[in-house]
Amino acid sequence: MLLIGVDIGTSSTKGVLVDESGRIIASHLVFHSVNRPQPTWAEQDADQVWWGGFVAVVRSLMSQAPKRSKIAGIGVSGTCPTLLPVDYNGKPLRPGILYSIDRRAIEEINEINSKVGPKEILESSGNVLSTQCIGPKMLWLMRHEPQLYKRTKWFLGTNGYVVLRLTGVACWDHFSAGDGGYGYDFSNCKWDVDALNRMGIDFSLLPQLRWSTELVGTVISDAARETGLPEGTPVIAGVGDAAAEMVSTGVIEDGSLVLLYGSSLVTMSSVRKPYVSSGFILTPGLEPDNYFVSSVLGTGCALIEWLRNVLNWNDRVPDYDLLENEAMLVKPGSNDLIIIPYLTGQRSPEVNPNMFGAILGINQSHTFGHLYRASLEGMAFALRYSLSKLEKAGLLKDYEIVAGGGGSKSELWTQIVTNVCRREQKLISGSVQAPIGSAFLAGKAVGIFSSENLKKWVTYQKTIRVQKNMADIYDHSYGLFMKYLGLLAQNI
């Protein structure tokens, strides 16, 4: 009994074939790109990239499946929220519009905010209106591509389109719909018809909502011929890539926290009661009466790459080992050098797109080792600021941090975060993989796995413990960080 999990990401599609014990039998990856026909646009061809990548990955996995094995279920995750109009035959009418990196609908965002009001938008959807939202992009299509809009039968997301191709059933999973913002009623977990009407959007263009582990159908004959999958194989609704990544860490219990050290520094927590705050992202969870609350620091590993490029000399970019070694010679607190890490604006725990990065307290004693360490510390301070809000709201009490992602390979950075936040971190062995999360969800849907099984799938390479003497030093530095941040906010 094998399970297939596939994740359609921004730059690649990855898939795994998993057995009943959670062991990966086979894996495959194909790369793709993002099209930018206009500077503020970000699109992908749904047939070539989403479906084509899925077919290539699944065919490879099926060729590696042991003889006499059976595919018990299929789970698909993908970038979210994305927007793809399809016609009455399920054919894409244009390339899919990607998530927040597509900024074409700024005018529509401002118009909806002005007409409805940011407070009402936040209260009804649990999120602020931003380039992440699908409503303004639907409105943009109505205005700029009206003939296409008239031919649209449904708007679908990334995994929703693949599920349609596999089963013939059109749906949105609740997580992706909620991540799409205004137009989804988080209190009742349904499409918000009133909100859609206020934006001028036809409610019938959005198909049924399904929970991530719901079986929506089975593989139809056309899809079986293209993919090599057995006809009749069960298919779940699937989920957005961030939620699938969270599942792959083994953390799905209430009050737990996942920290992903990627280009952005992202936290996700599973909670029973919704937490509405403009500085956090609220989405439905995987099942009814469950929610995810996320914080985002736009520059995680991206800040490190920026600093490496700044320190570039004669086309020689300093490598990570050099930076880490130099930073380890610097005492905690970096001699009161404070770096404010909001190079792309502030998203959590407050929304301030006009906030900027800053280097404060610099003097002639500071070296590039100080700069690098202060960058790691600045991101840790920003994380502590977000976590303090969640703690005060009662969402996090006695908790530990489960961490993964490329940046978690840095022993220095993870120790700094542990000391600054005064929370132990468990580092996941291997990489965080959304396809594994999707495979688990498929297994849960068909009755092979339970939440207890998931804990056995995940192994940890080490636990980072709090060094109290260092943590005490960082309390002083965190105070400086908050002081400087407050002064900057007053002068924007």
Automatic annotation (TrEMBL):
Residues 261-445 form the Carbohydrate kinase FGGY C-terminal domain. Keywords: Kinase, Transferase. One of its GO terms (molecular function) is D-xylulokinase activity. Signal peptide: none annotated. Pfam families: FGGY_C, FGGY_N. InterPro entries: ATPase_NBD (IPR043129), Carb_kinase_FGGY (IPR000577), Carb_kinase_FGGY_CS (IPR018483), FGGY_C (IPR018485), FGGY_Carb_Kinase (IPR050406), FGGY_N (IPR018484). Its EC number is 2.7.1.17. Residues 3-245 form the Carbohydrate kinase FGGY N-terminal domain. The keyword Kinase applies. It is an enzyme of class 2 (transferase). PROSITE patterns: FGGY_KINASES_2 (PS00445). Belongs to the FGGY kinase family. This is Xylulose kinase.
